[in-house]
Amino acid sequence: MSPVLTQTTTIRPITDNDLDTIVDLNQDALEGVGPLDRAKAAELVAMADQALVMEDDGDIAGFVITLPPGVDYDSSRYHWFDGYFDTDDYVYLDRIVVSADHRRKGVASRLYEAIERDKPIGLEVYDHNDGSLAFHTGRGFREVGVLAENGLVNVMMVRLPA
């Protein structure tokens, strides 16, 4: 795989045809995200505010899923932000995953650029994921709390619109 992205990169909505690939990518990245099966992936995409893949030369290089407030999502991390924000005008970044072959090539940055709008974004990062914490801090996210559960410590982070 080349060290840079090709000239044929595209960001587009996730389709049913992408679900098997995004599940595989997700399962290869469990150090930073929770597990996902095809049914759960389809459910997340259906309730998503934004569900995007980035293709590089026909291969899915990464994906991102954000959720609006008020959806029926069984996640304590998602519901934590209901208590944090005093508005319904924000999005929760449920997961962003970049394929192993495309890491450190700007895929995550491009996906973030596609979802960053005039709304606050809430997300969590495992406290042991130093690379992700540094990445998010560099993008303007700040720590606003901690949620410990199931033996994991989640650093709750928010980025406000510029």
From TrEMBL:
What InterPro entries does the record tag this protein with? Acyl_CoA_acyltransferase (IPR016181), Bact_Acetyltransf (IPR050832), GNAT_dom (IPR000182)
- Does Transferase count among this protein's keywords? yes
Write down the superkingdom of origin.
Answer: Bacteria
Q: Which UniProt keywords apply?
A: Acyltransferase, Transferase
Q: Which CDD domains match?
A: NAT_SF
What positions does the domain N-acetyltransferase occupy? 9-161
GO MF annotations in UniProt: acyltransferase activity, transferring groups other than amino-acyl groups
Q: Which Pfam families match?
A: Acetyltransf_1 (PF00583)
Task: Supply the name of the protein.
Answer: GNAT family N-acetyltransferase
Q: Which organism is it from?
A: Aeromicrobium camelliae
